[in-house]
Design a protein that fits this description.
six-stranded mixed sheet; alpha/beta; globular; 501 residues; seven-stranded mixed sheet; Aldehyde Dehydrogenase, Chain A, domain 1; 42% helix; 2 domains; single chain; Aldehyde Dehydrogenase, Chain A, domain 2
Length: 501
Amino acid sequence: MTDTTPDTPPRSATFTTHSPATGTALAEHPVDGPQRIAHAVAQARKVQADWAALPASRRRDQLLRWKRALASDLDTVARTIAEETGKPPGDAALEVVLTLEHLGWAARNAERVLRRRRVGTGVFTVHQRASLVHRPLGVVGVIGPWNYPCYTPMGSIGYALAAGNAVVFKPSELTPGTGVLLAELFDAAVPAHAGLLATVTGAAATGEALARSGVDKLAFTGSPGTARKVMAVCAETLTPFLAECGGKDAVIVTADADLDAAADAIVWGALSNAGQTCAGVERVYAVREIHEALCERVVARAGKLRPGAESGAAYGPMTLPGQIGIVERHVTGAVSSGARALLGGPESIQAPYVTPVVLSDVPENAAAMTEETFGPVVAINAVADVDEAVSRANDSRYSLGAAVFCRNRRAGAAIAARLRAGAVSVNSVLGFAAVPALPFGGSQDSGFGRIHGEEGLRAFTSVQSTTVQRFTPPIALTSFEVPAAARERAVRLARALHRRR
């Protein structure tokens, strides 16, 4: 959103974004400080009052107009994503398509999910009519990541807007252009509510200022370490906080699995977007009798893929330059600890690219198995049986996503139920990410709270409980005027009822 009101605080400092593939300068963006952010929040709060007062059906229609505008400008949005992240244009376009699916679902289902609902009452409250309603919080702050700069933050932005809130969005300093474009398209599609979605730009200091700005909730996506810092700031004012902090996702492959299908999914889950996916595949546990056969299939597929900036490249560069050092440390540490490099190895790091790396026999205490690698690296270890696979998959600080490959779908679902991950796919990877009705999120170092689905809509509301007295009760237990004998009769009645139930 471009704000031209007279009282807008001035902007001074700027920063420049660069192509991660070539280093070429892309654009300059302002460094928004506390004054600019306070102004954006105040303006959003003014617009939000009218937005929340609209019938849910009107909000739905306005959001669907924005969705259509995003679809019409899909090429522009995808090009901006590709330029800022380095990912192939086709991958960027797919990211926008998934975003449209979620935005459409949130717009169309908010009224059903959040409408006032009657609830039952008890024996002693039969004279009351009870209901609950989910009301918008007000202004929601969103701090987004750089790896999926449209799809991931829109899991909060779209659902928060559908629930009746305004949003102030701080995209990653690596991908601010995507965030600016989202707000501009919103203002153009819904001019009567311009400013309902405001984008502020900058690095860590801008994110801290947003956390201190008085927003009614903050949704954050990023590393666990940064989440702890932002959460500490929110704690000062008891600002509600939602965190999605990445994962170390595991895949379990059983003896009867379709190995070709499993290998194909593992390679895509581990290498797409250069492995820079919070719910991407990083660990694989295959039962021993099919372990080598699976490894051969994964290596054969991964060995055909190459990163690059040219057309036809499987994936792009590492978007965050500092991540290359983490990938190198994990790969080098694993190999020096006795792991087998089935494909690639330390020589795969050729900044800004990392060619595919497939490891096996990696010690479970190696950094490559315990820390988030966030690069095109996958470790495939053998296990004695499914029980050991489940145990190892669950033995992690992260619990975001997982997958199970098992020819018997019922058995696969039973294995999935034993995993601590917040989302599990059977016979696919990341299947849950494309289903808008499913909530997404994890626990421990993967964060807490949920986006997407009904839970994602409710996450950006407060619940109000209401009772309306329909008639005067025969025994008014909430009055000092009730006779002692009547109170005693009520207690005897309650005791008798609850002894039988």
